[in-house]
Write a structure and sequence with these properties.
The complex is a heterodimer of chains A (745) and B (407). Chain A has 745 residues and is mostly beta strands. Chain A has a 22-stranded antiparallel β-barrel. In chain A, strands 9-14-15-12-13 form a five-stranded mixed sheet. In chain A, strands 1, 4, 7 and 8 form a four-stranded mixed sheet that branches. Chain A contains five helices and 47 strands. In chain B, β23 and β24 form a beta hairpin. Chain B is mainly beta and 407 residues long. The chains are: A mainly beta (745), B mainly beta (407).
């Protein structure tokens, strides 16, 4: 039985469960949001207590909605807890046959990020299917050569997330391409959020309030990308006092500061700049000609019911992926502005409106000859309404955007015109509801109607079944159709190629992906939790670089369809002074592409191959513990080799198709003849990163000193292999570092 | 975890495909018109650089049918690329050769044999005989309606027009390459033939006059690499795009022909009308056929040479007219004007047909009179050619005025 059919059967079984007829007693429901920003808070533990004893409990879903049914009428104390927020306590009176709606805000506690504060509610193994809620505490648990953690380093510990190496700034999620990931920062799309050095993104730990990462099966609110969604919520400045953090390491220096601007208004500013270009020769024994920077300013107002925030962000990345190739370099920039306004009503209705601008440009010079450039900008307005229709949480919204693209990559893809310019008007609306089916089943159907640029309907469906109550495991399934009208093109023949140009699909319609997922999540006691997810995806109209028999830079753009299957498994242990996990990801990605040269060389016009991002096996292990005054962290990662196209070798060709050469009087053109696409695999990679940290209280604040090493056992992990020269470029060798982080009181 | 750690201890990285050893690289083609056949046979090497090492391979051509075996001899050829520059390199290649005759119409089995490796082999057939027919439009003679037909081969990977011309800057040849063509019902049609030339890169040479028209074709019985498959082949081969088993590259066989075509006209023709209302035939009607065909094949006769004047030592007579007219009712005429060096050529003369050869020089204007006179004699002769005959020689016109008198 195929995975899609199995998923459909399970879905059908869930939907066919009869609505449980039950005598309605009392019930309570509501939405919990963050105090300052109005952002819905998921995984908030909401309980009803009577006489000091817990009698009923539930946790909020991803929209911040909680609901408790079948409550005996009476007076209770409602208590809501979430790490990082002040506890909310409120007396409520429940009466029979009435559903009380109580929505409230939680105040964020000022950031104090030392220590292990990861809780089961926030752990990656107990969230919704395909979704991880990432907190600053989790980000900090992953060793990074800097004073603070970084969101992208944490993401790379997730089983379904693959990176090509420690440079390039690209991640692949469950067989998808980097340009198929949607990354939002406070609701604003950012095109290239990951820095050229793979440990870093534009999201250092100190800036992040939380992040929702959807590896697939995401709901109707998110559309326009086909692989994954990373929805990052930045924190606000401290509303009570000035607060700043500054850190420096041989790799990067950054500073974050914030505080009250006036009553009800806060500010937050951040600057980050790499130092590896200056320190690389000394630290690593070889030049590292790469640099990056990012700057951010956020001003937020917060009244009792309404609030708005303004965000501005700029990032820049420069450098050479291969330090030897002095004639080659790549660069990209992002510039973002956005206004977000939220309002929350007592009846649970929540409105969120965003106006934003996001621009990105990139350029590359390859081998000193080919100049590629691309720029894209997006001006957008979107509105989202969360409400309760009776006891049913619903969300509706719309999105309007204008996207303008300009690119020149004719030297890479000969069939693409020079200096192409295109605009796209996007209009879409969506709706989603969470329907209880019986006592232990929830079904969440949704749909996206895309009016422009191409008409389309994208159905979504999620369902969960908790057969043994809230303390037992949960079976979840998801299905969704996703389309992408603006695609990112890169030289997919080489996973290390990072230049991306944005354009509308040349032919064949939008990129499309169908997700089917099924998973089980379980708490096993004693702090152990585990999750297991299976997924299957069908891909259509994937842009691919056309295979050519002789290796050369210029090719043409083709299309492929694809199939992805995989399993993500994760086992976590969370104790008061220890947190650790082991994750395993299995991925099988297969493309099928019809190309004329396939017919010429292999007799069949359609060839199937595993593309460059097909990392078949991946293991991540993380352990962090408190040992007296020290915090010790270690992370080990293993990835099986990525596919590459093997060469047969060199010979000379004569271009006899163009001219009747005399083979004796001419050497011919030396060429590197390639075998079938992606039949070889690079060596597997593995690496151990460790860090030890200790804090010291100073009059001005707290100083944290961290010592660590990247690639602690100095494994030679291949990043890149130049087929022409036989030169291999490895990822970073053993890289010891010391970082200092000063946090004001 | 231990298993994973063991799995992580992988072995050395081998970037090259394991299938490389079993392959050789082959490039070349058999051409009966060439005095030496050259075929490049090389190992698929792991590095871009080459070495002058010996290549232990035996290369033969076996004529299928007769069983005649031709053993090709190895020659190590040295090429200096970028000589005199910092990037200069030296390349060594193995070219195998033979001076044995390659027969049109014969089929040959190519074999490259290495010890312990699979034999690379291919079978190629040389086309036997080409028939090229150039059809010149009688009404719009200088337009783009002229075309040519080639029969006797399945593929025509190369053909081009080579138009000789003179203008105010001198003489030249304009080569007009065209795209490959494939036979349809046994015939390859080439069109349009153009009849205009240009001197590239200059614009001050006046209007050129075409003095010579040639059509060059190279034909093959087997598929030839398609030009849009820029890396050798478009053969639909089963593996690695080669028509050679256990090899990459291409081995072809072709014959070439370069046919001169001149103007071609008919004398006015007459025919009975289709009929009248009374049923009584009316008078014959005069008409001109729409196309005048020039057919070339291995039996066609040809004629070339110069028009000269020897008695007074004038030498070559440019812009003289040389005309062959079939002595029959058709009056089919081929006509050329000589180039400045007096040369002319005909390639589609039918063997066994009586031709009237008529040669005359251009008239010379007499200064101050407004008149033109003929200062040379004419040649008026009847000739017949045998099959395949090529007749060459000078045609001598005598001056009709005194040698010391300037026209």
């Amino acid at each position: 039985m195929t995975a899609p059919r199995l998923t459909c059967l399970v879905m059908a079984a869930l939907l066919s469960l009869p609505l449980a007829a039950r005598a309605q007693q009392a019930a309570i429901q509501g939405i919990v949001v963050e105090s300052s920003r109005g952002r819905p808070l998921s995984s908030v533990a909401v309980s009803l207590e009577a006489d000091g004893r817990l009698v009923y409990g539930a946790s909020t879903n991803q929209n911040g909605v909680y609901r408790i049914d079948d409550i005996r009428a009476g007076e209770y104390t409602l208590r809501a807890r979430l790490v990082g927020y002040r506890e909310h306590v409120q007396a409520v009176t429940l009466v029979n046959d009435k559903r009380l709606t109580v929505s409230f805000r939680l105040d964020q506690v000022a950031a104090v990020l030392s220590g292990i504060v990861v809780t089961p509610e926030q752990s990656a193994a107990v969230t919704e299917l395909g979704r991880q809620v990432v907190t600053p505490q989790q980000i900090r648990a992953v060793p990074v050569p800097g004073g603070t953690g970084d969101l992208v380093s944490y993401l790379q510990t997730l089983p379904g997330v693959t990176s090509a190496g420690d440079r390039g700034g690209q991640i692949f999620v469950r067989g998808g391409l980097p340009a198929e990931n949607e990354v939002l920062v406070d609701g604003i799309l950012i095109y290239q959020p990951f820095h050229i050095l793979g440990f870093y993104s534009v999201f250092p730990e100190d800036l992040v309030s939380s992040a929702d990462f959807y590896a697939g099966g995401f709901g109707a609110r998110y559309h326009g990308r086909t692989s994954s969604v990373l929805d990052v919520h930045l924190r606000d400045g401290d509303p009570e006092k000035f607060h700043a953090t500054a850190s420096v390491s041989p790799f990067v220096a950054d500073a974050v500061a914030g505080g009250p601007m006036r009553e009800g208004v806060t500010w937050l500013a951040s600057v980050r700049h790499s130092l590896i270009q200056q320190t690389g020769q000394t630290l690593l024994g070889a030049p590292e000609p790469i640099s990056f920077e990012s700057e951010l300013v956020k001003v937020a107002s917060s009244e009792s019911e309404d609030g708005c925030s303004v965000l501005g962000m700029h990032t820049a990345d420069r450098g050479q992926i291969d330090p030897r190739l002095t004639g080659s370099h790549i660069s990209w920039d992002n510039l973002l502005f956005g206004l977000k306004c939220l309002t929350l009503r007592e009846n649970g209705r929540r409105l969120e409106a965003n106006w934003s601008y996001s621009g990105s440009s990139s350029a590359a010079v390859t081998y000193g000859a080919s100049n590629l450039r691309s720029s894209i900008s997006r001006t957008q307005h979107d509105l989202h309404v969360n409400d309760l229709l009776g006891s049913i949480p619903v969300e509706v919204g719309y999105e309007l955007y204008l996207e303008a693209m300009n690119y020149d990559m004719s030297e890479l893809f000969a069939d693409q015109p020079n200096g192409s310019f295109a605009t796209v008007l996007g209009v879409s609306t969506y709706g989603e509801a969470e329907l209880p089916v019986g006592r232990n089943v929830k079904v969440k159907p949704g749909v996206v109607f895309v009016v422009s640029p191409t008409l389309g309907v994208e159905p979504r469906l999620r369902a969960s079944w908790t057969p043994f109550g809230s303390t037992g495991g949960t079976l979840q399934g998801a299905f969704g159709v996703y389309r992408q009208d603006v695609i990112g093109i890169s030289d997919m023949r080489d996973v290390g190629s990072v230049f991306t140009a944005w354009l509308t699909p040349p032919e064949g319609g939008p990129l499309q992906s169908t997700h089917e997922m099924l998973g089980w999540q379980q708490a096993a006691g004693d702090g152990f939790r585990w999750s297991l997810e299976g997924y299957a995806k069908q891909l259509k109209n994937i842009p691919v670089a056309v295979w050519q028999a002789a290796a050369q830079f210029t090719t043409t753009l083709g299309r492929a369809d694809g199939t992805v299957r995989g399993v993500d498994a994760r086992l976590e242990l969370s104790r008061p002074h220890f947190y650790g996990f082991v994750g395993y990801g299995y991925n099988w990605t297969l493309y099928r592409s019809a190309q004329a040269e396939f017919a010429d060389w292999f007799g069949q016009p359609v060839q199937s191959y595993h593309p460059a991002q097909d990392r078949r096996n991946q293991v991540n292990a993380l352990a962090t513990m408190d040992a007296g005054a020290f915090k010790i962290s270690a992370r080990w990662q293993f990835g099986s080799g990525l596919p590459f196209t093997q060469p047969l070798g060199f010979d000379e060709s004569f271009g006899l198709s163009n001219r009747l050469y005399d083979v004796h009087s001419s050497l011919g053109t030396t060429r590197l003849v390639l075998d079938k696409p992606f039949t070889g695999r690079l060596p597997s990679v593995h690496r151990l990163d460790i860090s030890v940290e200790r804090g010291f209280d100073l009059p001005v604040g707290r100083l944290a000193i961290q010592a660590g090493a990247i690639n602690a056992y100095d494994r030679q992990n291949m990043f890149y292999y130049d087929l022409f020269t036989g030169h291999r470029l490895d990822q970073l060798p053993l890289a010891p570092y010391v970082s200092l982080t000063l946090t004001t009181r | 975890m231990a298993v994973l750690l063991m799995a992580a201890c992988d072995h050395g990285f081998e970037p090259l495909s394991p299938g490389r050893e079993a392959l050789v690289s082959v490039s070349g083609y058999l051409d009966p018109s060439a005095d030496t056949q050259w075929i490049r046979v090389m190992p698929i090497r792991p590095l871009k650089t080459t070495t002058p090492d010996a290549f232990d391979v035996g290369v033969t051509l076996t004529e299928v049918g007769s069983g005649r075996v031709i053993t090709l001899r190895d020659s190590l050829v040295r090429f200096a690329e970028g000589a005199g520059t910092a990037d200069s390199t030296t390349a060594f290649v193995h070219d195998f050769w033979t001076t044995e005759r390659i027969e049109p119409g014969a089929t040959y089995r190519f074999s490259a044999t290495r010890p312990g490796e699979p034999v690379a082999d291919a079978v190629v057939t040389v086309p036997e005989r080409l028939v090229v027919t150039v059809s010149l439009h009688q009404v719009n003679y200088s337009g783009d309606k002229d075309f040519a037909r080639v029969s006797g081969a399945n593929y025509l990977p190369f053909w081009e027009q080579r138009l000789g011309f003179t203008d105010d800057c001198g003489s030249g040849v304009d080569t007009l390459p065209s795209r490959p063509a494939r036979a349809d019902n046994g015939t390859i049609t080439l069109k349009p033939l153009v009849d205009t030339v240009s001197r590239r890169g200059t614009g001050q040479c006046g209007t050129p006059t075409i003095t010579r028209r040639r059509l060059w074709v190279a034909a093959s019985d087997s598929a030839w690499p398609a030009p849009d498959a820029s890396h050798m082949l478009g053969l639909g081969a089963s593996e690695r795009a080669s028509n050679i088993t256990n090899a990459i590259g291409f081995l072809g066989a072709l014959i070439t022909a370069e046919v001169p075509y001149s103007s071609c006209t008919f004398a006015p023709q007459t025919k009975w009308p289709n009929g009248t209302s009374s049923g009584i035939p009316g008078p014959k009607q005069t008409y001109f056929p729409e196309w005048c065909d020039l057919q070339f094949d291995s039996l066609s006769a040809s004629s070339s040479g110069r028009v000269i004047e020897t008695r007074c030592g004038d030498g070559p007579v440019g812009e003289a007219t040389v005309r062959y007219t079939e002595v029959d009712d058709s009056g089919k005429t081929q006509l050329v004007k000589t180039a400045r060096d007096g040369t002319f050529e005909f390639g589609a003369l039918k063997p066994g047909v009586r031709y009237n050869l008529y040669v005359y020089a251009r008239l010379v204007p007499v200064y101050g009179t407004g008149l033109s006179i003929n200062i040379y004699s004419t040649i008026d002769d009847t000739v017949t050619f045998s099959p395949g005959e090529h007749r060459t020689g000078d045609l001598d016109l005598q001056r009709l005025i005194a040698c010391d008198q300037q026209p």
